[in-house]
Amino acid sequence: MIKKLRATTVFLIFGLMFLCMPIVFLIKNSFDGDSIRKIVLHFCDAFNSRELIDSLITSLKIAFVAATSSVVLGILAAVFTTVPNGAGRKCKKFLDKMVFIPMIIPEAVIGLSLLMFFIKIDLGISCFVKIIVAHTLVTVAYVYSNVKSRLLEFDTIIEEAAIDLGAKPFTIFFKIKIPLMKRHIFTGWALAFIISFDDPIMANFLSGGGTTTFPVLIFSKLTMGKLPPEVNAFVVMLISVIMLVVFAFFFLGKSKKVYR
Amino acid sequence: MGKKIIFTLGCLFICLYGFYRYYYCSNEQDNVVCVCSWCGVIPPDVFEDFEKETGIKIVYDAFGGNDVLEAKSLAGSNGYDVIFPSFIPYVSRGCLLGLYNKLDKTLIPNLKNIEKCPVTEKWIKAGGNVDYAIPFFWGTIGLIYNESITSKLFPNIPIDYKIIFDLENLKKISEYGVCFPEEYIDVFPQAKIFWKISGGQKDAKNLKLYKEHLKKLRKYIRKFSSNTIETDFELGEICIAISSSDNAWRVRQSMQGEKKIKYILPKEGGILWVDCAVIPVGASHIQNAYKFLNFLLRPEVAARITNNSGILTNVCGAAKFYNKEIKEDVIYLTSEEILRLSFGENASVNKEDIDYTRLAVKAYSEIKWRIEDD
């Protein structure tokens, strides 16, 4: 028993180290400096750097809109493919596979082909919308798979009961299905948000005047040689905010029983 | 019922927000100028001074790379008002394809500051188009090396291109790391001189010869990179690299005294590169773009950019304002020295030239990605 425990503990420590190492190095890098004054100056620079804050706001906006629109589309697609009866069986099967294709294709290919698409068909939309379209295209799959997994285990008896009581399909959708899918929708939204926030590749192809996202900026900073210390400092602050949120969820969030 | 309304309102909000952004981005009333350049080249205080002076807000975008920028320019309006692509092959090709606005020289009076510069003369001789582009940044391509290693390996021979183009020498130094640049334009002209390859500058037959020679060396080249030189030298990943002068300056600045980092231009005459300022077609704030270009062409502003990044600026009279570190560095060249430099190749003037460029890019990437055994 003790032996087994030891092995698992070692494995756990190993796993945690594997997860935390890059973050630890990043934090160490950001505190590299000759004097405390210099380190503090880096952090002040990070706050004063307009390009960093501008790009962060752009990234957050894009991620928010892309995640929200992919949630809307993802739910619609998932509901459509999981309705048991009705017309368009082949169509459902086709959609079920097609949703995942943008996820599988390398992002560089999607970025380039979308760029080509926007060259050929000049819709006159701004670069902001172009990036949102690209991100939505990829993130819809994550929302779809999350929501679909919930809908598949959904007990149809509840739905039938609601119909018996005289509920219209619209009411069933909003009053029964959406509340039951709540968590999965949120997970999908968060995944979509993170993926959109993280992506430098498609954004690099599609960004234009005033839409440099945060990852693109960091990428461009890298190409000028070393990463400036204020970027490190900024990322450390970002990580600490995220950590706070995670810990807040960890301590405050009580697990509720999911009604099935 | 309440949730239904919230849902509908949410959808509506998203749509409205999208349209709001669309109009915001293409709004001509906004007093802004969208500038796209390499991150960190133009220091933020230059932007602030421009904003204070003119009241025009600068929207600054990070440059992702020449090829991506070109593809975006082909897409028509990409929202940028001033961009800084490389002269060869991008600007010369862009002029042919009509990607840039013709410059109204009366609105840029400070153009007189660059007219008589030696780099401008060289640039016009190489086919630079004065109507569309302003040669602004420049530098040279040479060898950056770590002298503490090379002096041990090659005590008797002076460092030159024969260190990395000669197979025996390259084998010796390969374990310390050799880095080649990302683009063909920085390698092929030097290779042409080294192996004494005859024929015209843009002879497609030569590409085969370059490939033959460079493929033999491929196994001993650790990296193909133009941008990570600084970190690589610091970590000891590489000890010799073909790279540009501004990289050399930054490596030397960040590693003061630690190791001996040197930069040389080959005896046969170095290669010159130029990044031009252009206004892309479809720019929506053209008047502001002219004001911004005029501001950049002031000697003291240009010098501040050089002092910040080590990239030389092609403005006569800027040299007065350069830092001592720049002036005493090897990257700083006098006008006689500039006259001995040349561009890797002339600007593209017709379709054959554009075809050559495409073939050259293909040849170089074949060298990059295929490691062949002996």
Described by strand count, sense and barrel closure, the largest sheet of chain A is: none
What is the CATH homologous superfamily assignment of the domain at 57-210 in chain A?
MetI-like
**Order of helical and strand elements of chain B:** HEHEHEHHHEHHHEHHEHEHEEHHEHHEH
Structural class of chain A: mainly alpha
Percent of residues of chain A in beta strands?
under 5%
Shape of chain B: globular
User: Care to count the β-strands of chain B?
Assistant: 11
Major β-sheet annotation of chain B: 8 strands, mixed
Low-confidence stretches of chain B: none
Biggest interface reads: A-B, 44 and 50 residues
Head-to-tail CA distance between termini of chain A: 37 Å
Shape of chain A: globular
Rg of chain B, nearest Å: 23 Å
- How would you state the average pLDDT of chain B, rounded? 83
CATH class of the largest domain in chain B: Alpha Beta
CATH topology of the domain at 57-210 in chain A: MetI-like fold
Low-confidence stretches of chain A: none
Please give the share of residues in helix of chain A.
Answer: over 70%
What's the quick description here?
Chain A has 260 residues and is mainly alpha-helical. Chain A has helices at 2-30, 36-48, 50-82, 89-98, 101-104, 107-120, 127-152, 156-164, 169-198, 201-206, 214-223, 229-252. By secondary structure, chain B is α/β, with parallel strands linked by helices.
